[in-house]
């Protein structure tokens, strides 16, 4: 099969699409921004119609104009996840989608399921500890707090599977996304854990399982009329955006690690076999038989953006100033836990700390300390991965934070590991198009070539060793106070 490939990704704050030729070259790209709804503290939602579907339809229209009538070979889709979108038998949304780990409403249900099923048993069977990232507790929250909605729910959808269903009529979910539905999925067996699912999601039919490299179905006549896509166009099963982005940069072999620099920091490491760790998420990968460990910091770019706004400067100026500051930020140490921390601490009440301040410090030292603090967090997560038996081999850095060079250099200096920087930073939608090529049986495109490599500096690395030791100790020393202060933030 020959023809152009489409890739569309639904993100937290924007959606992106690309048009790719059979060789993997990006011919066109489009972005649409949208907002997240936060109706209550700790709740994060998207309206599937006005965000997911509207963005998809608009981007597809842009891509089809760019294609100018040339034949299409396939469409790949990804989106934020894991999410919970309750839908009717016909696939119509019954309420806004409950988003991934940033939505913390199901804390009581997490504790309840840990007591009911056993935290150790959940980790061993599902590959991940129960956290706000998991779908299972949110399903139970829905049944308990919105029983009328749950009673009408006949489909459990995510961003990608919602679009797949609307385009093809198929009710499917890829194995990777399913493996983030803890405790509904058995990671080792590679199938739904029917006994646990019947207790956590009683009466809810679960979707058929496919791989992101498989075709879920073809665009129906009604979907073609609504979008302009040709009827019969193959559509992949889809997956979660970060894993599609990892596929876009060739992170597919055991030991490969993707480090995503963005509003949050996210890491994915490919494994040959499941290696559950209480401080990480263990999942299936994007190709049959593969497994991954994943880690995520609650804030990274969000901290640097907060600082930029606070001091009223541009990123370019702050990076230039911070680059002139020596390693260690002249005696500053920052804990970047401004919104709690996800892996490997799983401490939603952790808070940011800036230690060592004097009147001689300015915005340059503070900005560098923020970059260094985030780098220490990356090292902490990589060490947890190594402890699980997944020592990093090759690191590939992606995302907007790779621009400018300073941040990636600091991360390499702190970790002692080189990082490869790919030519394209457009993200998951490129991975979607490449997965679509694989799904329809095309010759694999060349992918996203490596444009540069960041090499660690051993002199700075030696200096960072002692700072890293104090970074780890600072959290332990301030955790009790941070938890007290976190409670004051909502005390009115």
TrEMBL record:
SUPFAM superfamilies tied to this protein: Actin-like ATPase domain
Claim: Transferase is one of the keywords in the record: yes
Keywords assigned by UniProt, alphabetized: Carbohydrate metabolism, Kinase, Transferase, Xylose metabolism
Pfam families linked: FGGY_C (PF02782), FGGY_N (PF00370)
Carbohydrate kinase FGGY C-terminal domain mapped to chain residues: 258-438
Any GO MF annotation of the entry: phosphotransferase activity, alcohol group as acceptor
InterPro entries: ATPase_NBD, Carb_kinase_FGGY, Carb_kinase_FGGY_CS, FGGY_C, FGGY_Carb_Kinase, FGGY_N
Domain Carbohydrate kinase FGGY N-terminal: 5-243
GO biological process, one term: D-xylose metabolic process
Family that this chain belongs to: Belongs to the FGGY kinase family.
Protein name: FGGY-family carbohydrate kinase
Protein species of origin: Amycolatopsis iheyensis
